[in-house]
Design a protein that fits this description.
Chain lengths: 348, 379
């Protein structure tokens, strides 16, 4: 079938919306990888968590995911207590900080179970969703990756896969097997020539751009951001300069879960998300990150956008082969990268 | 000495209690990609009778995660370690088909609540051990095509999921379209976890079909429907029984108004005449399920029928042999094949050596639509 301009414009719009989400995930995957060498396989699960928690809050159901946060907090407290006893890492853990961290999920749960979440304004629902999910990032780093931070990449990868498989299981248990979608941020839509653009599409693209700018500002203008960048460029050197690898790891996981959960909140009004939707979405972000050679942020974002666009057009021309086309993309890029560059990373 | 005697006594007691028990092995897809079907079916198992013909029934559930290899190893485990008397294949069609040879080799009857005739046809030495509940996809598709022909549909767009469910419907649609003189002008695919089907919807709309048929299991059936509505498609949209669920109506809202759906009578139970004997069985099932788990799903009622078939066959088999023996399993198979006029939630079952589906054609599925946001029978 021939493609004419209006169709191309609609496909382009569709591709850019998905591409914007993939770009956010690609940046998160890249950030975590450069700072901790962990390939963030569970990135997509935070997308599903974000979308499904938002949907649960809007349906007036208590967000049961808060109990995962509580379980992780208890596990973290136990791990910290063991550290306090053995005093191996000295002053990193204080008793009062430990209590605050332990109390946080239960306070949040008390709030969520007593507030009429369905009638809250949407930004408040979104804040609650983030309040539940974002702290999981540092918790997961503390529990599963910090103890093996200096292990070979392969072991980190296996641990990441294990975390992902567990999170998918938790997701099915907490949210059930059916997919859910949420109300759009606003119902309006705009006419640009022959193309009808929904306001949700603008929200997605606008938020993605704003987040990318915010990340850039964070990395170039704040001390914490610069410290993270330093840790990404050279871990040993950064440690010698007094940048704690534990801080860098937790911060990168925090940003990754934030980006993941926000992507979920943004995309949930456009498409129904189910407990296992996240993996494929983040896999496409991953393809974008690979195109960027797992090293360059702008290239990763551009690659992710390209994945979104190619996906949209591939679905139009040959919908049966859409995924094949998208994932086959990775091969020529890997070939090209390995032929033009000799070393990507001074690994081990 | 006394200790030894006591031990022997206890062991004997154990043996007899085990013998007074019928073991049912359930292979469930309650996790993984088919969880939307597997979870209600797994829940339904706990509603099945615990005592049949004086025997306690023990249901052993193993979860296969939707993976055929896991389904086969679960089957082997149930047969080899648990020595189950019957297997419920509450899983996907490919998994069920992979399980059949192992059930047949060990002489264990198997009941599968699936829509595909491939499980029981063509009949052979292995499929002799397999039985199925559930209206067949071909019958459901025929009902939809009959409606299309009545409405004068000449051209049809088809969009199905890239999985066995969608594949089976695509095949049925192609067969019936040729038979009924309907031309398929666009045939699209999408994935259950896709975030957008805009491209496929554009292509369907551009082909200007009189009607579009969507076949996807569960909530994903909404995605193309909403995309078509968003792209301003004005023709009639048909949905397979995968959409016959309350979630579809609630999440779809205005955009699914007027859809024609073929599916279980569960959605329109109040409108079904009391003369239909299945109504009472379905009502009992829905009440029991809602009390225990919340909103019922037609997929669960298919597994319930498997339980009914099994419970109906046990008394005859128990007269011939003791549970736990190969003779009992063979007798159970014979009794299942001899099922006559058993009323289930979805129709009346009458099995024969040639037909292990046994569902009568007329009670099999309802044609329904959504009017003013509510399910109602379509005419």
């Amino acid at each position: 079938m021939d493609i004419d301009l209006p169709i191309a414009l609609i496909l382009g719009q569709d591709g850019i919306i998905n591409g914007a989400i993939y770009a956010l995930l690609a940046l998160a995957i890249l950030l975590v990888f450069t700072v901790t060498r962990v390939l963030m396989i569970p990135q997509g699960e935070f997308v599903a968590f974000g979308a499904l928690t938002m949907a649960a809050l809007q349906a007036g159901q208590p967000a049961r995911l808060v109990w995962l946060l509580a379980a992780l907090a208890v596990a973290e407290a136990i791990a910290d207590l063991i550290v306090l006893r053995t005093r191996r890492q000295g002053a990193q853990v204080t008793f009062s900080a430990l209590l605050v961290k332990l109390a946080y999920p239960f306070v949040l749960a008390a709030l969520l179970y007593n507030l009429p979440t369905a009638t809250l304004p949407m930004p408040v629902q979104a804040m609650f969703t983030l309040a539940i999910i974002v702290p999981m990032g540092p918790q997961i780093y503390r529990l599963f990756f910090q103890p093996i931070a200096s292990a070979p990449s392969l072991i980190l990868l296996i641990a990441a896969i294990a975390v992902d498989v567990s999170l998918v299981g938790v997701s099915l248990f907490v949210f059930g097997p059916e997919s859910a979608s949420t109300a759009p941020f606003s119902e309006a839509s705009f006419e640009f020539g022959s193309v009808n653009v929904s306001s949700q599409a603008l929200w997605v693209v606008g938020s993605a751009l704003a987040l990318i700018v915010a990340l850039w500002l964070f990395f170039s203008h704040t001390l914490h951001g610069k410290a993270l960048r330093a840790a990404a460029v050279n871990r040993t050197g950064a440690t010698l300069m007094g940048i704690s690898p534990v801080f860098a790891g937790k911060a990168s996981f925090l940003l990754a879960t934030l980006l993941g959960a926000l992507s979920g909140i943004l995309i949930a009004p456009i498409t129904p998300i189910s407990f296992d939707s996240g993996f494929v979405i983040s896999l496409k972000g991953f393809v974008g990150a690979i195109i960027g050679g797992l090293i360059s942020y702008p290239l990763a974002a551009a690659g992710a956008l390209a994945v979104g666009l190619i996906e949209a057009f591939a679905a139009f021309w040959a919908s049966s082969y859409k995924e094949v086309i998208v994932f086959t993309l990775i091969i020529p890029f890997l070939l090209w990268r390995s032929l033009t560059r000799h070393t990507l990373e001074e690994e081990e | 000495m006394l200790k030894k005697a006591l031990f022997a006594l206890a062991a004997a007691a154990l043996v007899t209690s085990a013998a007074a028990q019928i073991k049912v092995g359930v292979v469930s897809s309650a996790t993984g990609p088919a969880a939307a079907i597997g979870v209600p079916q797994k829940n339904t198992v706990s509603l099945l009778p615990k005592i049949i013909a004086g025997y306690t029934v023990d249901y052993q559930i193993l979860v296969d995660g939707g993976d055929p290899t896991a389904a086969v190893s679960a089957t082997k485990k149930l047969i080899g370690e648990q020595q189950v008397d019957v297997i419920f294949a509450n899983t996907t069609v490919p998994n069920t088909i992979a399980m059949i040879p192992f059930a047949a080799d060990s002489g264990t009857p198997m009941i599968a609540p699936v829509g595909s005739m491939l499980v029981v046809a063509p009949m052979n030495a292995q499929k002799k051990w397999a039985f199925k509940t559930t209206q067949n996809d071909d019958v459901a598709a025929e009902i939809l095509f009959a409606h299309m022909v009545k409405q004068g549909v000449k051209t049809l767009g088809v969009i199905t999921t890239s999985d066995p469910y969608g594949g089976n419907w695509e095949k049925e649609a192609q067969r019936l379209a040729q038979q009924q003189g309907v031309r398929i002008v666009a045939n699209e695919k999408f994935n259950r976890v896709d975030t957008s089907v805009t491209a496929q919807a554009l292509k369907l709309v551009a082909a200007k079909p009189d009607a579009v048929l969507i076949a996807a299991p569960g909530a994903p059936s909404l995605l193309p429907h909403v995309a078509l509505a968003d792209r301003g498609y004005r023709g009639q949209i048909y949905q397979s029984h995968g959409a016959a669920m309350d979630l579809f109506r609630k999440q779809g809202g205005r955009k699914v108004e007027g859809a024609i759906v073929v599916g279980s009578m569960m959605m329109v139970l109040a409108e079904i005449p009391d003369s239909n004997p299945s109504k009472k069985v379905m009502r009992e099932y829905v009440t029991a399920y809602e009390k225990a788990f919340g909103e019922a799903s037609p997929f669960g009622s298919q597994a319930y029928d498997a339980g009914l078939l099994f419970a109906n066959a046990v008394p005859a088999a128990a007269q011939k042999a003791k549970p736990g023996t190969p003779e009992f399993r063979a007798a159970l198979r014979d009794a299942l094949e001899a099922t006559r006029d058993l009323v289930g939630t979805q129709g009346r079952y009458t099995m024969s050596p040639q037909d292990h589906s046994g569902m009568d054609r007329k009670g099999a599925a309802e044609l329904m639509t959504i009017r003013n946001g509510q399910w109602t029978r379509a005419r």
